[in-house]
Amino acid sequence: MSEIFINGIGAxxxxxxxxxxxxLEHIEIYDHNNLRCVNPNFKEFIPPMELRRMSRIIRMGIxxxxxxxxxxxxxxxxAIITGTGMGCVxxxxxxxxxxxxxxxxxxxxxxxxxxxxxTVGAQIALKLKCHNYxxxxxxxxxxxxNVLQDAIMLIREGDAGNVLAGGxxxxxxxxxxxxxxxxxxxxxxxxxxxxxxxxxxGTIAGEGxxxxxxxxxxxxxxxxxxxxxxxxxxxxxxxxxKQRIENFLxxxxxxxxxxxxxxxxxxxxxxxxxxxxxxxxxLFSGIPAAYxxxxxxxxxxxxxxxxxxxxxILEKQFIPAVVKLDDLNPNGINNxxxxxxxxxxxxxxxxxxx
Amino acid sequence: xxxxxxxxxxxxxxxxxxxxxxxxASLEKQYSGIxxxxxxETIHKGEIPVAEVKATDEELFDRVxxxxxxxxxxxxxxxxxxxxxxxxxxxxELSNDKRTGxxxxxxxxxxxxxxxxxxxxxxxxxxxxxxxxxxxxxxxxKVASYFGFKGFMTTISTACSSSLNSIMLGARMIxxxxxxxxxxxxxxxxxxxxxxGFNTLxxxxxxxxxxxxxxxxxxxxxxxxxxxxxxxxxxxxxNNRKILGEVKGWANANDAYHQTASSPEGEGAYMAMSKALKxxxxxxxxxxxxxxxxxxxxxxxxxxGKAIEKLFGIKMPKVSSTKPYTGHTLGAAGVIEAVFSILAxxxxxxFPNMNFKQPMKELSFxxxxxxxxxxxxxxxxxxxxxxxxxxxxxxxxxxx
Amino acid sequence: xxxxIERLKGEIIEVLNLEDVEPEEIDADAPLFGEGLxxxxxxxxxxxxxxxxxxxxxxxxxxxxxxxxxxVRSMAEYITEHKGK
Lengths: 354, 400, 85
What we know:
The structure holds 3 protein chains of 3 kinds. By secondary structure, chain B is of the alpha/beta class. Chain B has helices at 20-29, 57-63, 74-90, 111-123, 137-146, 162-175, 192-200, 233-238, 267-280, 298-312, 323-326, 333-347, and strands at residues 5-14, 100-105, 152-156, 181-188, 224-232, 245-254, 289-291, 318-320, 379-386, 390-397.
C-alpha cells in the first residue's frame, strides 16, 4: 500500500505561518475573541485584476495552496480537494444582506457566484488550468479530515500521485456574533495565550487556511507521512473515545506508548475539555502533549492548524514552548497523534509519522 | 476482482412526486412539476416559474412520522423523506457498525430558514434554533439521527454536481473496502437566495426551461431530494438483497474555464464522460441512453451537447434532459437523475425531453421527443455539472 | 457627454472594485472587455445593474450588453439616448 508523504505545506492563519522558514518564532497576541489571519502580501500570489473580486477566504486559500505547491515543486496537482465547515461566509452574508435590504431588487451576481462552497477549490483549478479531480467537503468538524481521507484513497487507488489538500474557514463579525448566540464563545475578552487559564464556558473564534501537497513519492522537504485518519460523532462516553483511539493506533500497529507527541484540541471551554484530560491521563501519561487553539481560535477546520503544527514539528524535530502542555521532551519525534473535537460533537484522529 | 457496487434502494421526492413510484408515473404521463410559486415567499411569485415539491413543511413532517417541531429546515425534511424510502426499499438497516455510512450533498443547506431569520440572528435570540441548521452538514445529521445512526458520515458541496459526487464517493469507499453499504444522495430546498442569485445571472427562463432547444433561454429552479443505497457485491449477496442496478463507472473533471460558464467545446464535460466510460470498460456503443445535465441555459446545452457529440460521434445514443419535469434541483439534481436513469433501465423506457421544439443549429443531434417504451436500455450515462467547472459523470447498468 | 463619461468611469471603478485603476487611466473609447480593461461576462452583469440602479435603464437581454458596454463612450451614448424613456 502506498505511503502518503507530505511534501509541502502552506498556512495562512492568525499566526505568522505563511513563511515556512520560520516556525512560531513571533507569536501574535490577541486580546479579543475573534482571531483573524495574519495576511501575507496577496499580490505576490494573485494578480490585481483577479484580487478585486476575491473575498478573504479565497485569498487565504489561493495563497496557502500556492505556498504548499511551490515547496513541493508541483505545478499541476492530480487532484484538488478542499474542506470548509462554513464556506464563503463573507460573500454569502453580502448577498443575503443585500437581498434582505433591497427586498430582492437590483442585486448583483458577484457575491452570489462566489458564495458556493467549492469556490476556493474551483478558483485554484481555474488559475492552474487544472482539469483534474476537484472535490469539496462541508461536513462541520469533519471537513478537513474528510479531505485527507479522500486524498489517501485517491493516491492508493493509483488515480493520483500528487494531491493538493486543504482546509479553509473564514470568520466575520456577523458570523462571530451569530454563532455566539449558541454559546460558542467566551463572554468576556480573553488573552489568547491565557485560553486554558480562564476556566469558563466558551472558547475563542478563529479562522485559517492550511494546504498540504500529499504525494506517493517522498519529496525534498520531509514533513513526514500521513498515516491514518478517523472521524466519529458524539461518542457516548470517554471510555468509548479511549477505545476508539487504541483501535485507531492498533490499525497502524502502534500502542499509545509509541506516540512521541499528542496534540490535543483543548479549547478552554470547561464544558468540553474534560475528555482531553481523560485521554491524556489514561493513554498518554508521561508522553509530551501540546495544544493549539490558543494560536488559531476555534472553527470547523481548526484541526488543519494542528496538522500544520504536527508536520512542522516532524520536519524541524522541535516542539515550540508556546504549544507545550508539559515540560517533557521526547528523544526524537517519530509519531504524532492529533486528537481534536469540535464542541464535543465531531471527534477526529490524525496520525502523522516520520 | 474489485467489489461490485450494487444499487439496492431508491428514494426520491421532487416536484413531480412524493416517492419513486409517483415520480415515474409523472415521467410517463409527461407531467411537469414547473409552475407558479406556491410555497415560497418571494417578490418573484407569478413572475419566475419554479418546480416546488407539492407539500408544506408540515406535510413533509407528517409523511415521515415526526411531530412538527422547530429546528428542521425544508432541506432536512426533503432529505429524510427520500432517505427513508431508499432505506426501506433496500431492506437494510443503517446499523451502527463501522461498515455503514451516509454521504449527502447540498449547495445551500439550510438557507431556506436562514434567509427568513437572518435579522433575528443579528439582533436577538428569537430564532437561535435555526443558526445551527444553516450549514451544509445539518441535513445529513438530521437524516442520521432519524435512523439513530452514528457511523461514518460526510457531506459534499460542489455546486450543481454535488450529489452525483456523493454517489461517486460512496462507490469509491466500497471499492476501497472502507464500507459495505452506504446511503448516498443529496437535497436542496428552494430559497430566495438561489432564485435571486440565478436571477442576477439572467439565466432563468420566464416560460420554463427548454433544454437543447434552439430558443432555450435559461434554466428553471426546482427542489427535491433523492437517496440511493449502494452495497458491495459481497454484502448484497450475503444479505440476499434485491439488486436494482449497478454503478459501473464514475469520474469527476474540472472544466477550468470560468467560475460559472462552461467552455464552448465542453472540455471538462468531455473529460468526465470519457473517463467514466473508460473506467466502466465500455465502448460508446454500449451506452443506450444519456440523461444529460441539460439545464436549458444557452451556455450549458451548447457546451454539453458539443462534448456529447465529440465523444459519441455518429454512434449517438438516445439523449434527454429531465429538468423540464423537476426543474434544476441544484445539489439534488445528480442523484435525482441517477434514480431516473435506473428507472429507465428497470422499465425499459426513455424519457422525453419535454418542451423541445427546434434543434440547436450548432448540434447534429436532437433529444428524444416522446416517451419510448419497450426499449433496449441496459446502460445509462448521466451528467451533472456545477459552478466552478465541476463536471461529473456516472454510468449505471442492469446487472449482467 | 464628457461629464457623463467622467462620472461613469468613477462608477465603473466603484462597482467593479477596480482598486488599482484611476479614472484618467480609462480611455473612453477603448474596449472595456477582453483587451483594454479586461472585464468579463460577470462584470457585464454588474454593469447592467449599474444602469438600472443609477440611470433607471433596464436591459432585459444580457446579449445586448456587448454593444452597450463596448466602451465608456458607448455606455454614455446609450444612457443619453435611453434616459427617461
